[in-house]
Amino acid sequence: TQYYCVVSNNSGSVESDRARLTVNISPPVITEHPITLVNSTVGETVTFRCEAQSFGHLTFRWVEVIGDVMVPVVGASANVLEIRVEPDDDSTLYQCSATNEIDTVLSNVGRLNVLPSIVKHPEDAHVNINSTIVLECGATGGSITSYQWKKNGTILTSGNSDGRLSIDSVQKDDEGTYVCTAINVRNEVALSKPARLVVYDDFSLSINDTSKEYFVLKGSVANIYCNVNINPRPPGGVNVTWYDNKGTIVVSEAKVDTTHLILHLKNIKRKDKGVYTCSVDDGNGGVNVSTKVVVEYPPTITEFREIGPVKVGKGLALHCKADGFPTPVARLYRNGQLLTDFVTGLINYTLTSATLSDNGTYNCTASSESRATGKAFPTVYRVIEVLVQGVPDRIKRISFVVVNLTTVNVTWMPPFDNNSPITEYNVTCKKCLLHTAAVNINYTVISGLLPGDKYFLAVAAVNSVGRGRDSSNVLLQSATSDSVAVKNLGFAMVTEVSVMANWTDPELYSSFIGEYMVSAISPRHNKTVTVPADENSATIQNLVPTFSYNVSVVVKYKEPLFISVAVFDQVTLPECEACVEPELTPPLNKNLTSLSFTLEWSPINAPLLNSYTLLYSNHSQLSVVKRQIDSPVISVTNIPANSQSYTLEDLAPYSTYCFRLRSVYAQGNVEFLSQDSDMICDITTPPASSSAPVNLKIDALDLTSVRISWSPPVYQYGRIIEYKVTYSFDQNEMSQFVKNTTLLITELNPATQYFISVTAITSNPLGDDLEGPHSNMIEFTTEFKVLVPNIIVHPTDTSAAAPFSGVFTCSARGNGHMSIVWHKQNDSLPNKVHSNVTISGNIMTGILTIPNVTSDDIGMYFCVIWAYPIATYSRLAELSMAEFPSPPIIIATPIVNLDVNNFNLTMKCSPDESHLRYTWIKRNDTLPSRAHEVNSSHLTIVNLIPEDSGDYQCVVRNNTGTISSNYSTIHVKVSSPTISQHPVDVTANVYESASFNCTARGFGVIKIIWKRVNYSMPATASPVTEAVSLNEVSSTLKITRVVGYYSGQYYCIAENEAGEIVSQTAYLHVQVPCPQVIIPPKNVTVLPNHHTHMYCLALSLGALSYDWRKQDGVLSGTAVKSYVHGVIFNSIGSETTIVHNLAVSNVQLSDEGWYCCVATNECGSEKKCAWLEVNTLPNVTIQPVSKTVKVGVLNVNAVSCLATAIDRIYYKWEKYQVSDHSWIRPSHRAVNSSSPNLVFKIVTEEDQGIYRCIVSNSDGSVTSDNATITVYGPPMINFISNHTVSLEGNKVNFMCNATNDADADTSLQINWYKGNSLISDGERIVLYDHIINATRQLYSNLLIDPVNRTDDGEYTCRAFNDPALYSELKTNLTAQYAPVVLIEQPSPYMINVNSYETLICRAMGKPVPTVQWYEDGFPINPSASGFLQIPTNNPHTTVYTCVGVNNAGNMKNMASANITVIVKRLTPCKPLLNAPENGERDLIKVDGIVKYIIFNCNANYTLKGRSLSECNNGTWSSSTPTCIKE
Fold this sequence. Notes:
This protein has no helices and 138 strands. By secondary structure, the chain is mostly beta strands. The model is unreliable at about 205-210, about 620-630 and about 1115-1135 (pLDDT under 50).
């Protein structure tokens, strides 16, 4: 780089010239070469080392030298090469290279020789005499060429190539010690271990082993026999021993005769597998036989994890791993379809781009077959759900309703969300005011339309994955009138199964009608027909007799495209007299063994019978609470009339079905339907596997009711007992439980968005109720439109006369805002009338009262129900004048002072007469709720109680007066009940049901209450009470799913108004299993002097106790600072789970260890343990500090962090990533990211950000404060002046503008360069800058005045805020000047005759001049060449002129030069000049004659005199020069 000094005093400072420092780096030098030769054996590790010195960055590389080729050693980039010796490594050459920035040097070559080594040693042998024995030996290393065998040190064979020694007909003298010697190509040898050969000559031994492999199941028992045949018997007998796979003696016995020894293995574990050897030894040696024990165990799935939702197009990877022996076959299914299988027990199923078809249930199974039993192990499986999410489907159905002249309500059918809930809809309407809007429901209102104008609308659904495709454009047109619906709807019966509807056209828009849609709708049957626009009637056929239909007409307009509101009316069809219902045959067995069922029925002999329709539904009992909701009815039509049975396939598993049949009759084109047959129910299908409900669908029935249906789960964990349907709106959530796959939800809010999902609740084998995953959530919005009010109570005729009133009542059902208006036909209402209106739900009731009726009030009255703009009129009702009979006379009075000890009482007032009105009253009290016929002459009170005692009176009225009877006084006496049947003792197993019965007799209302001695009643206990006779009541207490703690004494209490009685106690005894720790304590880590807890949760069906232990010792008072426990109940409430909490406060290091929770009940106990670790976290003593650094700095210590701890500390630096708000590792340029100092090899702008340090030790980690590293880079040059062309002598001004880095804390400067030279102010060059501080910008100008031809070239503007941080842009200056012509040869120029000579003319200038030669004033062709060949045939003298021309400054400029050429015969120079001492010379010939001599001096010598001598007509132009030492 360049250096300069600055000298300053009080008046200012000056800078010195620049001086450059160049550092030369030499190539590396090898200081330690690899070892020339290394000897080793196979399996050992050898090391080659290479050391080098270098002043720059040094790297090493090792190669393997193979002839002239160097093969790099993979991974060998250090100066040390370690090699694990293999047989093929013999004579391998290795060489090291060291490289720095300058060069690469090679080390000497190191050789690896592999010495021979024995890999297979001969073994001891015990053989019988005259038998054959083969001893084997094997070796490797250095190309083994031969083997040599020795017996007792004597050479037997030499030169064997296979290492085998065979001895036929073994004799006694063959006994001895045998050694094998292996020899390689370099005559290097290796000796084997000695092997002893023993020869028997007086008896023979053999082991009769029946099997070489023994297959056994894990946990079972194995007996393996070692049979010993001894013949002849050795003098001292033999020892028979079993050895296991580790060489350990299992069993050993001394034997003296033919016998066997049993190897007994019990409770076999996986570690028991291996080779077992039976050895027989007589003291001189023995024989061995081995068998291999193979332990088999069933397959298990060890890995198959749930994965989160996957978006379409993203990768999907599933990993299923199975364990077992034999190695199981793992198979992967998707929705029941096999995807792949692998024998290895490991499946890696990967999809690079998931699609919606990959969505579903994935089941991984593992299966294998046992050779020990010859049967297959039970197949195991694990199921996960994979949810693939995509953008919503395209919306296909869009409709709209004209609200008024400028407003349209637009709705659309929500598309399938592809497993990601729709979050909003994007509505685009061209020419509308909204243009583009986002709504979160499938409904929007478009207002501000121009009457009669056309608009185009499209809708797209959006979910978390993205935006779906836009729907097709829908043409909207605003209405010009509110009257777009049909008028005067009426109908008439055509046949008993068809109706004709007729109407009149709408008031306006009739010319744009496309068609009419006429519908007949009932809860169980719908029919719709389409009628052309020119017709005003339609016949709807094939309706169902006796059904009530709502007949509606909707106008579908074609231009503009919209649908009017529907106009309704109601019709009820008569019965079908000829339709005979079928009779089903009950099945013999209602519990099916498969998912198919055959329904049978009796034949029908009817001439009009056309077919049958089968209807069935699923009514599974899915809940312990008896909730029952009807399932959707499935129909099978067109069953032939001659059929007497039908088979249904693929019924839902573990479900209960109901079936009914319907006959279909036909006459011509008209069909008649019979009544349904009697229903056959409780047809139960067998269970099957499943998991989450699918195919959730919603059908809107009316504005406030929907029917929800779904399909059962594909896979099931246990038995499905019920479904939970959850629906929510506006932060409100409700749930209903059903037993089948359909639910009718009523009383919904109109125009409200709802979200619905379904879960399945199953019962596992232990009886626990588990709620499964949610189905896909469905969103829907209820509609809102005003319906025609339906009058359900019409006013009826009445009569009255003063002082009495006339009263009319009118009730209607509807929605929206309703009102009731009363009218009098052909007259106005009397002023004295008053009306009252009450509203209950969607029913409004109005009462019109006309007081003091006179003859002016009589007439016809009716009510009008308004639901704007729709009105409904009631029937007419007549008000007439009443007759004036005489007041009533009491002819009988109630019985006085009656003592009643019975259940019912009847009192009589007078004979019944139609014109009399009766009212019974009780003095100072209301009548009992059990009083009947209170408005007749007879008053009956049932189920008398003491509170019924009192004074009763009868009041009789007619139109002329009222009279009251005397009071009757009643005294009711009731005695206490008695127990007629006491409960008895019951014994039940866990999870079974138990029942107690209790019967009581007595008078009045008897209530039976069940109690439990000293305990509350079980959560699953449900009493059922029923009357046996008039004065006898029986109650049954049923306890379902009994558990251990339900054991105890139970009794009943019978009570009535007079008192109570207690029954005898009965004992419930429950068989209780051992406790089960379902939530064991978990390992915890805690800081010293802090507090911690361990929790233990056990499930027990009986009395449960706990004991905590530390490392198998009872906890002392000092170890446990506090000890508490609590009792909770599970979700069913049928079992008690006791949660024990072990609390340790002020934790110290001595508290570290194992803590065990022991749960005990009357059956036994279970222990679970956890580790308490005392954590001593590090303490950060020096926090990192924010810093500003510049781009390109090498090895900068950016931030530092220092911590202390009692053990080893580990540091890890992290950088905050803004894009996803996460912490990541620093860039690869950061070194020492695991040390206290974070150092960057070279700083870049990417290193700017927030950093923190994670300090950890064996006990945990702590996080430091955040520190910000601010990185500033070079300035940015915004522009520079363009390339400029200027004539020499003119003025040029270059401009450059730059902006400093926003984070830089140094000032911005600009330098100008020509080529690589810095430009400074001078006589012709002026530099001046202009700074704009607000924008951190700098303007710099370079003024050249006047321009010189030497100014031509490239100019660079370099902006910098640091010597190492700069940016630059370049421009060019072209300096033009007039031509300058030069002829290289001197004038006059003499040339030898018949020689070859060329004149050279150099013309300089910008632009480059063109050249023209002239001979004696005449141009020579070609004229544009600077080279001219001279004719030398004859002596002559000629003047040649060279002319150069260019257009510098856009004008023609010329220059010329002359030369006189003399051609004659020349004399050569002799002798040649000698080279000076310490020098040399070069000879240059022209036409074969030496014309010039060039002199040069050697190094360290300087030439004195001319370096060039020329021969001019025989004379040299200079003498010999001299070389003088420097």
